[in-house]
Amino acid sequence: MENAPPPAEELRLIDRELAQLDARRALLLARRGWLLQTIRPVAAAPADPARTARPGAETSPPSAQNVLLTLGGILLAVAAIAFTLVSWGHLGIGGRALVLGAVTVTALATPALLLRRGLVSTAESVAALGLLLTVLDAYALHRVAFPGTHPGTYAAVASGVLAALWAGYGPALGNLRLPVPAAVVAAQFPLPLWALAAGSSLWVTAWATLATAALDVAIALATKRPDVRVLAILGAVTTGGWSLLTGGWLSVSAHSPSLAVEPALLLLAAAGLALCAAWRAPASAVATAAVAGLASVAGVGGVLRAALPGEWAVPAYLLCAIVLLAAVRTRAPHGVRTGLAYASGAVHAASAIWAAPAVILTLLRPAAVLEDVWSGVPAQDAALWGTVAAPVVAATVAVVLRAAPRLLPALDLPRTTADCAALALAWSAAVAVPTALSLPYAPTLVLQLLTATAALALAVRPPRGTEATGAAGTAGAAATPGAAEDAGALAAPGTPATPPGAFAGIALACGLASATSAAVLGLATRPATFAVLGVLVAVNVAAALLGRGLPRAVVACGAVVGTAGLVAAAAAAAGLPAHQVALALLAVPAAAALLGVRLGRHPVALPVEATAAVAGLLAIVLAVPHPPTLALVLALAGVIAAGTSVRAERRPAAGYLAAVLFVAATWVRLAASGVEWPEAYTLPVTVPALAVGVLRRRRDPQASSWSAYGPGLTATLVPSLFAAWGDTHWLRPLLLGLAALAVTLAGARLRLQAPLVLGGLTLALDTLHELAPYVVQVVDALPRWLPPALAGLLLLAVGATYEQRLRDARRLRDGLGRMR
Q1: d(Cα 162, Cα 142) in Å, to the nearest integer?
Q2: Pick from 233, 297, 500, 705: most CB atoms within 10 A?
Q3: 220-263: per-residue pLDDT in tens?
């Protein structure tokens, strides 16, 4: 059954829907009209959507108009220049003036008519032609009316007049934009050209360019047009930069204070101009104020430099830079203060770099002692030019950096960064003092030791805030030997356990550099060697006991190095040969191993033992020329490593090292004794070692075959292999091959990696030794081309089956990995 609404209700519904459709249609029509207005300038779409749109123009009307106007202006300008330069002489004076004047007046008056009609681009082109014609008028006027005038003077006057005319012509017409920028460009020439034409000195020319720069600054600050401002700034940078360079060169070249006053006035005037610009233009205040600060330092410092000896020139400029820092405390704008601070910082940095060669020279001079150790006190060198002032400069910059963040908070200089730089510079000043003052040998050595001690003390000093809790933490930590690692950190969990990393690192680097230089310099005489090394060992030990963190481990390693040096020096002083000095050096790793028992898992233990191991390696190197002593050194080193392996934290690495050292000692001893049958000595060691390995495998099935059987097998197979390669008979290689084959088969049968690998390598090398003579004979009998051909075929075969070979290699690796 259909339920239709009453007619009146249905009519009301229909009217409402029609109204909604009309509103929707009106909205769509309005949107369509807006879209047509939007796309018409770009594509000029037709109103009828059924018609096909025509392709758009390649260039828009404004750009095409500009191109045409520019080309037209260029052609007219070329014609005007050709008329002036070529056809000028064909007319009389009246005709010349009438033609050129009429053309110029017409070109300058036409833009006014064009602007009234709204043709701005055309007016700009015609105005550009008029400006060019005024230049040609000036040239023609000089040729006709003022032929005797100096070209430079006339050019200066003409450029000034043209600049004034163009500056008034543009605003008079209103909408022309070209004349005013052209006037700014023309205004750059009058004063410099006048100075050059007058034959003035370089100083007067610099003042002329500075005055031009002042005019440019005034224009840049007064104008609101961006194009004019950019041109004025470029002009100010160019002319002002020339004045600054000229003033700086004149100041540096001055040989007396009176001659340095004139360039100083020029530089100070330039600084005042730049400072005024920085004050009025905050956007570029930092850079402009920095230029002002550098110019003032160069001017005043130049006068002081001329009044002081040559090597004190840098301190003179540095003094001016320090005075300049006072401006940071004024109420000047932030950008101005920042720029002045940057200028002062640049002078400080340059001064520090100037002092660096004296520091490097002091650190490297002791290297000459290495050519002849214990040959006597080196000759005293005279102070080089500039080295006397170097420590003064470095110390002054250090003091300023230390005080600047505290006295001048407006600098926003991070205190940690300033302290690090101040520390490095203070150390540099102390290091450079011996070279600067040409101190004798003993004071130089004492000063370097004091410098090293002070730097290391700063590197390992406890941080602020832990002194109060350090005593309680130390007392609690002293109850157990391994718990005394960082008492301050344990007592104050919220306080960092070390000083700031950068500061401690720089102090540590400075201390190590001074300590190294002092140690090398101490090699000049025997008493100095023992005294310097003794002091350094004591200082490093004290620093290791009192310090915290990473520097503590580094100075502990330094103590080990110094101890090794003392032992070697004592052995050398006793007249012992090098291989016996090696025996004495083994005392260092032995002492480190005993100390490691006391330290336990302390963070310093591992670096100390590693450094002592390097001393042991040096002992082995020294004993190499004497095989009997080398065997003894290797055995003693093995004993030390075996003793170290008793500790659980060192057991794996030290245990393997001990086994290697013992086996190496056995080989060297056999070789040194001239034993022809090493098996008589190695088999008694191999059999018990293998028995011990079997017992260990029974107790610990997870133990590796390398730790169980590797040392025992290596003890016999390797010496026998060396003996077989030097044996010309067949019996030893045969027996060795059979033994290696048996070991290989046993390893494969029992799935043990060590016997399989060691036996297989020994068997392969033994077989290669036996087949080598026959291979050589066969190769000699073959044609020369056959071996390369066979090698090429082999490479082709391997390349063709590369993937299969790779899979085979992986299976072999996996199979060996599954063995123990």
Answers
A1: 14
A2: 297
A3: 999 888 989 999 999 999 999 999 999 999 999 888 888 999 99
